[in-house]
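Marked as duplicate of an earlier ticket. Keeping the data here for the record.
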Amino acid sequence: MPETDSTKQKASTDETRFSRASWVALAIVLFFFTLDLAQIGYRMSLPTDGWSFPLEITSGEQQYIFDRNLAGAVSDLQSGDVLLEVQGQSIEQIVRRAFVFQPIRPENWAIGERVEYRVLRAGRELSVEVPLVRRALIDWLREFFTFLLESPSTLLQATIAIFVFFRRPRSRAAQILLISSALTLAYVASLPLSGQQGGPAELFYLGAYWPAWFFNFLIFPFLIVPLVPVFYLIFPVRKGPMRDRPLQTLALILGIPPVLIIGRFLTRLDQPLALWRTPPEIGVAFIFPASIVIAAAALIHTLLKERDPTHQAQARWLAFGVIVGIGLGQGLLFFLPELGLLPKSGAVPILRELTGSLYPLALAVAILRYRLFEIDVIIKRTLIYGVLTAALLGVYFGSVVLLQGAMRALTGQGSPLAIVASTLLIAALFNPLRRGIQTTINRRFFRGDYDAALALSSFGESVRDEVDLERIQIALLSTVQDTMQPSTVSLWMREETGSKPAD
């Protein structure tokens, strides 16, 4: 029975109607945002030296290295100074007391006062008088929006997550995507105050140190990373333990990381400056690899075992987003510049952000099912033009090197003619290479489409000069049978006196 307009409208209304789980997801987001804004507001009211402190992970012990003067307060501090003492308290004592909820701040730690810092600069210990100021809202806003402009994929992911959630609030995948994106945005909002590590302003206040530490750092191994396998275990269909015991599985996935990290914290109470190593160690050794393995296994299981065409298409969209958006955008385009194989500036960061944005876009298409079955066309074109680009770049750089070498051998110096000749060679090779790559990819990965196109081409060749109507009918029926493989096939020919089938 065909769907009526009223049936379709009712189904669309049901998809956008909130369920109890939808309200719970929204409440979780509002809860973390409220906590984040509360700790940001509290930290902005505290006396501070106004500097940011990035997390230093190159040495065995934690170091508080002055990075940027965010507040603009005039002092003798310099970027690169290492904090050793504050008013006679060593940084090791300050961190230990903050960690066990017993901070002791100097008596003159107040806005408008000056305190003595002892710092290490170029191998020498120096005493520096530092004024204490209050953080300005405009400074925080400037740093926050600067980060978003430098990393637009973060804002794009949050925007897509909100849009997808309100279009499919009943979808568990949309709910997980919203929560994960909101947690990432909360992390980004907390960073501009004093950097990822925080500084003395946080260390001296009970209500500032742990909230800052959580939103600036622990939120990733505690929540954001573990939500990745949860997403892939429930989308496009629930799998394994997430289908049989969803609440217990969710509690296990989200509960193990905090237990491991906190347990390791407790064994290092006598090494306060080594505490920073715990989340990276646990994260790199267990949380991150386990999350990636579970997510990859769930996605591969769906691609190989799921027979429903819609679920298959959704899984292919996910795979496309992972391979192109994360693998290429956040993988190769991140590590290759770090290895010195690509420049760190120029077009590479822009390209990394653009390709990284494909992942949340692919998630949105998979969840909303918008043009779901166009994924095969997108994958095909991505393969064709990706291989074509790599081949042309290889030919270009190879020809430039060879021609420049030949020019130096003949004339003793390089010549711009090598670049001109290489460019002309690329222009001449573009179409032949594209056709060859397209044929190869179609034959190896899209055999059905390739065979159908080959059959249609053969049919066109066979009937081009044919004038016998009966032979044309036989060729047409045979081509349809070979390409589409229907259970039966008939051809109706229009005549003046009526119609009759040709079998």
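See parent ticket for discussion. The CA atoms of residues 158 and 181 lie 5 Å apart.
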